[in-house]
From TrEMBL, chain A:
Residues 42-273, 307-422 form the Pyrroloquinoline quinone-dependent pyranose dehydrogenase beta-propeller domain. InterPro entries: 6-blade_b-propeller_TolB-like, Beta-prop_PDH, Quinoprot_gluc/sorb_DH_b-prop. The lineage of its organism: Bacteria, Pseudomonadati, Bacteroidota, Cytophagia, Cytophagales. It holds the Pfam family TrAA12. Coiled coil: none annotated. It comes from Hymenobacter ruricola. This is PQQ-dependent sugar dehydrogenase.
Amino acid sequence: MNNQLSRPFLLAAALVGSLGLYSLTTRPAVVAPDADNAGLKLPAGFGALVVAETGARARHLAVTPQGTIYVKLNRPKDGKGILALKPGAGGKATVTGGFGSYGGTGIYAKGGYLYASSDEDVYRYQLDAKGEVTNPAQPEKIISGLLNRGEHESKSIVLDNAGNLYVNVGAYSNSCQEKDREKGSMGRPGCPILDSAGGIWQFRADKANQTYGTGTRFATGLRNVVGLDWNAQNNQLFVMQHGRDQLHDIFPALYDTKQSAELPAECLYALTKGANAGWPYLYYDPVKKQKILAPEYGGDGKKLADAKYLDPAVAYPAHTAPDGLLFYTGTMFPAKYRNGAFIAFHGSWNRAPEPQKGYYVVFQPFQNGKPSGPWEVFADNFAGSAEKVASGRADHKPCGLAQGPDGSLYVSDDKAGTIYRIVYNQK
Amino acid sequence: MFVKKRSALLVLLLLSSGAAFAQKKPVAKAPAKQPAAGVSAAVLAAGKAVYTQNCLSCHQADGGGVDGLNPPLSKTDYVLGDKPRLINVLVNGLRGVDIDGEPYHNAMPAQTHLTDQQMADVLTFVRNSFGNKASAVTVGEVKAVRAAGKK
């Protein structure tokens, strides 16, 4: 989450932090990486610590300018769908409470409010000067009735700088087949799912009681987006799409298991109002670097799709499930990271029987609001070992990303519920 | 029926400690060393071939499924319990049903391209793999469910 307000608060927080620590230790109030960097593999100069173990399915998270962490849980734990964590010594944090009885994915802090989503609705909570929610039991319901048909149900949210809120409404289907995921079933003509899902919807962030129908379909032809963020340099919404699955299972005569594991790419899209990324009529082939006509709509693995659809900004390995996107605006990390994108790849399942892939956080360089140069794996080994990556039986699955007031990068894990904090300590 | 469920539960309890131990292993698990009585190696081999081609990409090589998306096939009453209900999952697919209290969000497509023999083989394989041990599913049992038709 981007924080424009952070500097004065950071100063205040640093002062408070050092006073608090003074009584405990004579050492300065630094964020201390764990001896094993929380099990992560990081570039030189970076360190990581486990901020907290929530033991819950931690989806997205937000950090306020004062350092309070709010974590959205996929399913409520002990009746709490949002956990509040207060900063403690050495950069760690403690779960101090929770609120919101609903499960979900989206959470975002901006302009004195905390926004959170269930799989149908979006709420907002007021934050006070200490970054604490003042009305945990009585949030304002700003959007209700978003479509949830069980598949691709999560509703990720982000705000721009003009008072608009963007929410993903995923397609309740893999590839808009007549019979979802059934072998040989063809695509529904003029895919009717796109009328109500498979895109990004735009609402006002400050208006109560908006209904699904009053929102604007901002972009379409997006199968399912979980990670999304607003790029303030280019004033543009970027989203990560989860590409379609099971080309071999559904069309075994056209795709073997190896092709099915490598197709299609997971794509980053730069959206403008009215954009159409072409799902379900196409997929993006990262080897050919082309938009390929989907087999459900007459494709054979080679025929190109209509060129009118949006090209991806960047393509990443197939099926690695990008669940978090964050433009880094902090100053803690070296200059090359500033205004670039971090992407949390939750990890694949649908590459089987080929080895699985992902379970890492990637860095994508940007210049002037556009992707610039090759991406690299930034934080690896969430899975715990190469074998656990290959089998898909990862210990941790990175999901959400947030930026702390000091420029730390926070990562949530919805497998074991670990909250990570990555810092740069080299001068 | 009640007795059958009881015995299935007993098998489940007996297997659960071993299954939990084996869960850490990433490799595909071979069928249980001692399949249920009357289950031949030939049927298990035929069932494994059907599984690899039609089931593995979602339910995975170890039968463990995928968190929140595709349910596991081990240690679940859906696999070890009532056979017509299990056969019906292949005949009609399954969607929006919690398994042992957990939601799974992907649709399970109907597998009607499989023959009666293939359905019987793959279900027998699943009921005797991944730490499971339960009686074979016969072609006759599959035929009966398919004859009853779509729900």
